[in-house]
Structures are given as structure tokens and as C-alpha cells.
Amino acid sequence: MEPELRDYVGELLDSGTVAGVLALKDELGAVKPYLFTKNNEIGDLVLTSKYPLASVMSMLQKEDPSIKLAIVCRGCDERALIELAKRNQINLDNIVFVGIPCDEEMADKCNCLQPYPKEIVTGEKLSNWVPKNNYEDFKNMSTEEKLIFWKGQLEKCNKCYGCRNACPLCFCSDCELENALWVKHGRLPPEFPIYHVIRAFHLAGKCVGCGECENACPVGIPLMTLNHLLREDIKDLFGYMTGQDIEDENPINTKEEY
Amino acid sequence: MTEEFKPKIVGFLCNWCCYAGADMAGTSRMKYPSNIRIIRVMCSSRINTEMIIKAFQTGADAVFIGGCHFGDCHYVDGNYRTKKRIDVLKRLLSHMGIEQERLRLEWVSAAEGEKFSKTMAEFTDTITSLGPSPLREIKEEAI
Questions:
Q1: Are B117 and B28 in contact (CB under 8 A)?
Q2: What is the pLDDT of residue B143?
Q3: In sequence order, which residues have a C-beta less than 8 Å from that of residue B100 and are 6 or more positions away?
Q4: How large is the average pLDDT for residues B123-143?
């Protein structure tokens, strides 16, 4: 998969279609996001490990809105870019998607609903993929059990804001989570459950299921459980899936009846 | 010795319909339980998640939201937005382990004083049978 992708990316750079390619670079065995601008660097381009490149892309575009860049993106990166474009955070006209599918191990780890972008440059997409874990254990709990579960989980929170900072869709400059009116300053753990309810609700109809919040959480709160259930609810209530088409508006923000 | 449980209900009422409806109930001398603490807002779509959760966290057993009927919103489409938000928030509350019956959205027009008093009586009964809010206990533990 990697050699073909390197060839493809090299051609994009050579032909001058794009000024740079945003991807992951191997450095001493670890990966970091990197903007490849020269063909001779491309040997360091790697695909494994996952990184929220969508937020890096929006940062780059804010620096120079006219620059045309390509991005090596997985399904979740592509969905995040589409969601960001809906909210005028980035300009998709200046982005070339270089789509890669996730393998089964990765899709399983993220419990991904759609582990592939719309168009794939190399590799094979997992057709008929259904996530194995549908959070049935959680759904079967009674109301009291759910409360006890979350009380225990959210007690661990040390309010590092890691979930918010890692999230590709959290772009507000003024964050409600920093507003002392809702989340008291200097109190650990934050009062149950306002911090996490605000975050989950603000991501309703926005979350692309990339799992970065859960990865970033230093105390291992199962944040994706909430996000996954809300994504299901939004689908159930409004028939809406995030990151599919730039024309689809978030149903919660529209005035139409449902 | 057990004290009788009297639920605390926070009501966010829209200025144009539900608040006027509550006023109507008052001026018509209709009786309704005094458990509701009314907060007037300009539109039901002004109410956000933060306000509702904050109400629960500061000791409310239930939250009532009153707005205009569809098509009657003073701001044309505010109540359509409210409806969607509250439906999603209800699901979120139930995932968090808070009974979704504790959050109620109702459309009451300025002329429906009777509907307001009936709704309040019914809602108070529902919450009395549900018991105190689980978040209230947590608040007491924290203090």
C-alpha cells in the first residue's frame, strides 16, 4: 500500500497540482504530521498509526487560505474535513483528497462505522463492514446502573481538556467548557455530569467517530460510548449521518420540522 | 420520620406564549402546584443544554420547558429548533442515567391557562412518584 501511495503523492507534487501533501512522517520510529513539499522526502511518508490530520489541515489553511494542498486521509479524516467545511472552517476547493482505507484491526480498534473514505487511491476497503461492539452491554443496563457507571467513570476526570483539544471538530475560540458559569474553575473532578454532557451535546450531529477524544483521555473514560450512542440517536431521529455530503446540514441546527 | 417529598421544578417559559399562559392561569384564579419556579426567557430556543443541566445540578428534580405552538413562534421558527434539541438532550440524559421524564417540553399558548395548570399538576405528580433527582443526591454528597 505504501509504495503505491508514495508514487501517487510524488506525481501530485511533480505535476504541480498541489504545493504540498499533508501526511504522517516517520521520525525515529514515531510518527508526526508533516507537510511534504519535496519529492525526495517522500520516502519517510508512512500510513500506520492514526492522527487527526483534519485539524492540522485547518491550521495550515488559516495560515494561507489560497494554498492548494493534498491530504492523505482515512475515512474519519475525510468526514471531519467535510464537517469543518460545512461550518466554514476550511475550503474544500483547495484540498485534494488522497484516500486510504483502514484495515480490519484498525477499524475494530476504533469501532468505526465507516472505515474508508469515499474515494480510495490504494488498498482495499472493507466491504460489508459492521462494527463488532455495538455497546450492547451498556444499552442493557438499567437507568440506575448507567448512573453508577458514569459516576464512577467521570470521577476520574482531571479536566485536562484533552478530549476537546484532540477533537478535530472542536474549533470554537470561546469554549463553553471554560465558562465558570457552567464548569466551576478549580474544582476536580468537574461537577457530575455537566462537563461531559456539554461536550457530548455540542458534538451531537458533528462527531465523526474518529475516537481521538478517547485516545487522548489520560484516565481512560469511555467517551466514545456517549458519542456512539448519540450518533445512533441522531440517525434514528433525523436519519442523518455526519460527514457524508457537504450539502447536508446538521439537523439540530435547521428550522425544519422532522 | 420521613418528610414528604416535594419536587422542585424549574420552568423555563417563553415570554410570548407559555409565560402569558401561566399569567392567564394566575389571573383566572386557577390552581396549580407551587412546585414550579418560573424563569422567563424570550424564546424557548434560548434555552441551551448548559442551563438545563445546571438546573439539575443545583437541585432541581425536573425541568419544564414551555413554548409556543408550532407556527406561533414570535421568532418564526424558534420552537422547531427547541423541539429537536430537547429530543436529543432527552436521549443523552437517559444515556447518562437520568430519567428522561424529568425533562418535559410542552407547547402552551397565551390563552391556555387551563392547559398550563393541568400540565403542572400532572408533571408534579409524575416527578413525585419518580422521587428526588439522582443529581440532587450527588450535590448533597459533595457538600
A1: no
A2: 46
A3: B90, B91, B93, B94
A4: 80
Mutate: best of B53, B70, B77, partner A, most A CBs <10 A: B53
Fold of B9-142: Rossmann fold (3.40.50)
- Domain locations in chain B? 9-142
Confidence band (pLDDT; 50, 70, 90) for B142?
Answer: low
CA distance B45 to A177: 20
Q: Quickly list DSSP for A162-205.
A: HHHHH-TT---SS-GGG-TTTS-TT-SSPPTTHHHHHHHHHTTT
CB contacts under 8 A, B 61-90 vs A, are 70, 76-77, 80-81, 84-85, 87-89
Once rounded to an integer, what is the mean pLDDT over residues A166-194? 91
**Residue B138: which pLDDT band, with cuts at 50, 70 and 90?**
low
Name the amino acid, one letter, at A160.
Answer: C
Residues of A in contact with B70 (CB under 8 A): 257
* Tens-place pLDDT, residues A207-226: 999 999 999 999 999 999 99
Query: What ipTM is given for this predicted complex?
Result: 0.89
* Shortest CA distance from B134: residue in chain A: A147
Task: Please identify among residues 97-136 of chain B the ones whose CB lies closer than 8 Å to any CB of chain A.
Answer: 97-99, 134-135
Of B83, B104, B92, nearest in space to A233 by CA: B92
B89 CB neighbours in chain A (<8 A) are 201
Q: Above 70 in pLDDT, residue B1?
A: no
Query: Which residue, among A137, A153, A192, would best test binding to B if mutated, counting the most B CBs under 10 Å from its CB?
Result: A192
**B54/A contact by beta carbon, under 8 A:** yes
Confirm or reject contact between A226 and chain B (CB < 8 A): yes
Neighbours of A196 (CB within 10 A): 22
Kind plus residue range of the DSSP H or E element containing A54: helix A53-63
Q: Are B37 and B11 in contact (CB under 8 A)?
A: yes
